[in-house]
Amino acid sequence: MLTADQTEALFRPTAEARGLPAFAYTCEDFAREERTRLFARTWTCAGYAHEAPEPGDVATRTVAGVPLLFARSRTGEVKCFHNVCSHRGALLVSGAARGRRALRCRYHGWTYDLDGALRATPHWGGHNRPDAEGFDKSRLALKPVRMARWRDWLFVNIDGEAEPFEDYAAPFLARVGEYDLDEVTWRRTLSYEIAGNWKLVAENYLETLHLDFVHTVLAEAAPFEEHAVVADGAALGTIIDVGLPDSWTAGDPLPRWPGIGGDNRTAKNLALFPNFKFVIGPDHCCSMVEFPDGAGVSHQRWDFYFHGEGASAARYEAARDSIVDFYDKTNIEDFEAVEAVHRGHASPAMAGARFNGIWEGGVHHFQKLVAGYMAA
Ligand code: FES
Ligand SMILES: [Fe+2]
User: Fold this and answer.
1) What is residue 241's DSSP assignment?
2) Contact criterion met (CB below 8 Å) for 286 and 327
3) What's the number of domains the chain is made of?
4) Does the beta carbon of 91 lie inside 6 Å of ligand 1?
5) pLDDT tens digit string along 49-64?
6) Looking at residue 330, which CATH number applies to its domain?
7) Considering the domain boundaries, does residue 314 fall inside one?
8) Is 142 a pocket residue for ligand 1 (Cβ < 6 Å)?
9) Which of the four pLDDT bands, split at 50, 70 and 90, describes residue 262?
10) Residue 255 in domain
């Protein structure tokens, strides 16, 4: 996908490097290759436990072009399977469903339990005879997908070959270790469609140099130069210890994460390669996940979480709303920038990004991770 010259230029020290070539952002062939070489081979964020809160609940999502289903079993565990019937390959579940006792294919009625075992094959042995001699249903269970769960977030490794999630995510998990997220409670989801390649959405998140120009309100409370860059294995992002003061939200102050002191104003804007972003402050957190749709469109989903009753009690509503509204406005400012960058990449004059060695080490690191997957 990348020539030896392009790879050599990318892997120079940050200030001398030249970024990924423009076609890595605009070419549909590159985007298709990313599905199998990158997204399927790493730990991609694919779902949310809260989408299937009770036994029998099912959620679906297509990741790297692969249809998946998440089912909450009778014992309360969320499992991931390929969303395809073992008979003749029909999509098994077409959308979210609640309280299912089994998963029944609409084509010829093959029926699976919530653990993926094939239980019924109507008329397989003749009219009204569901069983045929020598037909071994146990070999035709739904195909499981390797999945790891961290709190509400479900990560899949589609090819099954990645290192264990705990090892892969260790540099990320170490940076959120001080927050007790036992009672992290989902509250709201916002969905966006961005006319830009998913990598540009990610890269924009990984530097704060644009704050003064794109986010004037945010930059006042969280000056760009106060952010420290994180670029450590699969963990990326920026951290600021003098972020937004309590007074920036309306209404009653939200409950803080247990163990976080009253003067803690740290905001961590972390990412776990490839598509998981996680902003956490003293009293809320938000995940942002990209789902690419070809080279030029990214679907991004933001989910907001609070501590315990901070997610539900009416007296915190004004505070919750001010957080969600502020993030939403900031996000829209970012999208305009990202879409302009995407359009710029159509130009033959775009010969790979230049990086600032102080502020853009995270963007450079991200591009090197992409190149590493695409080369192998
Ligand atoms: S394809 Fe599902 S039962 Fe035939
Ligand atoms: Fe931004």
Assistant:
1) S
2) yes
3) 2
4) no
5) 999 999 999 999 999 9
6) 3.90.380.10
7) yes
8) no
9) confident
10) yes
